[in-house]
Write a structure and sequence with these properties.
The protein has 301 residues and is α/β, with parallel strands linked by helices. The chain contains 9 helices and 15 strands.
Length: 301
């Protein structure tokens, strides 16, 4: 009986699959590792590995914010070609880390301009030198800006890069699509995930908290935010409350580390912590990253 049941069920399954067209079957059996989610008719996010990518599709050209890695950037480029035949006007880097800029090289000869804060470009060049990266393996910005930020208009969308000082690095920007009211925060927000704090690239936790408060004040209650990374089970799409929560978490990291230092704890003892008091939502691996950075930052006082 069990064999007859298996044969009957298998036949039914094969018959059902026969009713699915080839493209649907391919999608079912070979779901791609990357995902595209459209936030509006023109703006979407691409996720695979590395930092979240935001893209804008218009009749006058394409804008891409961040590039992940060379292979994943290639996947994005192929998908963009299916959706829009216009040129890539701008590739914008929120900051220099390889999971956000490694894919720049895939846009060489495709993107008309690569844009980033001047510190981000300097960090890209420094890291490439330290790692002895061949020139044909990276693609640096040709448009840079400083405290004043940068802006442009592509078709009906106005894009503005805001720079509020050091945070995750000394070169992080927020990219605002003003008409859609969507802001790519890059790695200035890690949604319920312990962040990497790049002290070697000028990171500053105290100012990071200030710039998040400034971001909340600069944008409005209807603004949609996109972050570079989120913990498992959490989204890369955020609202102002999530920015506030992350700022509070960073404040609790400093508060906890300072209290431990005052108790005479060594760095090694502090790094044994399993949770940041006051921020229980931030769980999992990586707690030593912000604690190490906080210890170094406070030790300089």
């Amino acid at each position: 009986m069990q064999r007859r049941s298996f044969v009957r069920n298998t036949s039914l399954t094969l018959a059902s699959l026969a009713l699915i067209n080839n493209s649907s079957l391919a999608s079912l059996l070979f779901d791609p590792a990357w995902k595209i989610k459209m936030l509006t008719d023109d703006i979407g996010i691409f996720t695979e590995k590395g930092g979240t990518i935001v893209f804008l599709l218009t009749k006058k050209g394409i804008v891409v914010v961040d590039s992940q890695f060379p292979d994943t950037a290639g996947h994005l480029i192929e998908e963009l070609k299916k959706k829009n035949t216009k040129p890539v006007k701008y590739l914008i880097n929120t900051h220099h880390h390889g999971d956000h800029t490694g894919g720049n090289i895939a846009f060489k000869g495709i993107a008309e301009h690569v844009v980033a804060h001047a510190n981000s470009k300097a960090n890209q060049l420094r890291v490439a030198g330290e790692q002895k990266t061949a020139a044909d393996k990276f693609h640096i910005p040709d448009i840079t800006y400083g405290e004043e930020g940068w802006g442009t208009k592509v078709h009906k969308e106005t894009i503005k890069a805001h720079y509020f000082g050091a945070g995750h690095t000394n070169g992080d920007s927020m990219i605002h699509f003003e008409k859609a009211n969507i802001v790519h925060m890059g790695d200035l927000v890690f949604n319920r995930r312990h962040p990497y704090v790049d002290r070697n690239s000028g990171a500053n936790i105290a100012n990071w908290i200030i710039l998040l408060d400034k971001a909340i004040a600069t944008f409005d209650a209807k603004t949609k935010f996109v972050c570079g990374h989120a913990a498992s089970g959490y989204d890369v799409l955020l609202n102002a409350d999530d920015l506030k929560a992350f700022g509070d978490y960073l404040g609790n990291v400093l508060k906890f580390t300072e209290s431990e230092i005052r108790l005479g704890k060594t760095k090694e003892e502090i790094l044994k912590a399993k949770e940041i008091p006051g921020s229980p939502e931030w769980k999992g691996d990586g707690i030593e990253r912000p604690l190490s950075a906080a210890y170094a930052e406070l030790a300089l006082k």
